[in-house]
């Protein structure tokens, strides 16, 4: 993950430094805060249990965007996609709790179109270096057991959004992003994030 982060930052900054001042544009900082939704099923379906596949989520991106009919740019950042949890109480008195939590580095590009001077729509896509942490814990009166497993793999992300430009430096809007977090060569978690999006340009 550290190697990916170094490469992501180097590519983004390298691209910016080579052409940033050749065309008009802006550096930007973009932050999202909202809720995630995991495309996972209840592992204890049919039993008396609690299950949640939504959680608090957010992302922070920095980058550079060039001005054109449709503005285009590069971005790098980090996303925290919350968690999904399941808990079941067994008839024998034991309790089991399972959780998956995903976060990771982002590297990609974005497009932004100003419908009017104030209203905009945008889209982004790129690579997501996902770090998924799986944890379980079983507790009873005479036996306790716990364990965890971490999987780090590269997937992709896509997002769309729109909002309002208060001035040339600041905008606020709504966004939806979907992330793919691979858990093996043949399977993955698809995680959606609904969020409030704020951006500052300088």
Topology:
Elements: H1 2-19, E1 25-38, E2 49-52, E3 54-66, E4 71-89, E5 95-114, E6 119-139, E7 144-165, E8 170-182, E9 188-201
Antiparallel strand pairs: 1-3, 1-9, 2-4, 3-4, 4-5, 5-6, 6-7, 7-8, 8-9
Model description:
The protein has 202 residues and is mostly beta strands. It has a single domain (2-201), classed as Porin (Beta Barrel). Helix content is 9%, strand content 69%. The chain is built from 1 helix and 9 strands. The protein has one helix spanning 2-19, and strands at 25-38, 49-52, 54-66, 71-89, 95-114, 119-139, 144-165, 170-182, 188-201. A hairpin with a 4-residue loop joins strand 5 and strand 6. The longest helix is centred in the N-terminal third of the chain and has 18 residues, at 2-19. It is elongated, with a radius of gyration of 20 Å. The model is unreliable at 4-13 and 15-22 (pLDDT under 50).
Shape: elongated
Radius of gyration: 20 Å
CATH C-level name: Mainly Beta
> What is the CATH topology?
Porin
**Count of spatially separate domains:** 1
Classify the secondary structure makeup into a structural class.
Answer: mainly beta
Please state roughly what percent of the residues sit in beta strands, choosing from under 5%, 5-15%, 15-25%, 25-35%, 35-45% or over 45%: over 45%
Produce a short descriptive summary.
This protein is mainly β and 202 residues long. Helices cover 9% and strands 69% of the residues.
List keywords for this structure.
mainly beta, eight-stranded antiparallel β-barrel, Porin, single chain, 202 residues
């Amino acid at each position: 993950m550290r190697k990916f982060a170094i490469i992501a930052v180097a590519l983004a900054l390298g691209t910016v430094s080579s052409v940033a001042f050749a065309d008009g544009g802006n550096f930007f900082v973009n932050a999202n805060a909202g809720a995630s939704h995991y495309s996972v099923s209840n592992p204890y379906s049919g039993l008396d249990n609690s299950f949640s596949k939504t959680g608090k989520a957010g992302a922070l991106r920095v980058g550079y965007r060039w001005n054109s009919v449709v503005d285009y740019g590069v971005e790098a950042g980090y996303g925290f996609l919350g968690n999904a949890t399941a808990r079941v109480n067994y008839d024998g008195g034991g309790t089991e709790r399972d959780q998956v939590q995903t976060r990771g580095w982002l590297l990609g590009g974005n497009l932004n179109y100003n419908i009017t001077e104030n209203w905009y729509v945008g889209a982004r896509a790129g690579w997501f270096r996902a770090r998924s942490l799986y944890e379980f814990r079983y507790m009873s009166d005479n036996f306790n057991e716990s364990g965890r497993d971490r999987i780090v793999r590269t997937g992709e992300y896509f997002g769309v959004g729109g909002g309002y430009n208060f001035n040339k430096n600041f905008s606020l809007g709504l966004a939806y992003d979907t992330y793919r977090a691979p858990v093996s060569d043949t399977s993955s978690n698809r995680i959606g994030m609904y969020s409030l999006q704020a951006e500052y340009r300088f």
